Amino acid sequence: GFMNISLNLNSVGFYQITKLAIVPCTLVAQAFLFGVVVSRKVKMSLAVLLLGLAVATVSDVQLNAPGLLLGLLAVLTTTIFQLWQGSKQKEFDMSATQLQAAVSFWQAVQSLCASIALENLCV
Q: C-alpha distances in angstroms, 96 versus 20, 26, 84, 87, 93?
């Protein structure tokens, strides 16, 4: 939800930056919270990806304070969800698809409530 609202308030370039910022944020959170260490290859690949994104969108980034806040919230909430989903997959020995099927009803209810509450935010 936050990512879509951020897209509505900011440029596509900023939206792309926030989408790709999820990966390093998740890696940093895993390192601090769980002691997960990623390989040098992964770090180098991520650096190339982020550098390419920066070059491609440097002239396209336009944002404002509400859009920046929603972009940061989008990255934070997505990172937290990914960490939660990964821990639950391990805890219950489920695939990502199985876990998604198990939580989809409650996720739909929460999304409906959020969409009703935020419907007029970006009008």
A: 20, 17, 12, 11, 10
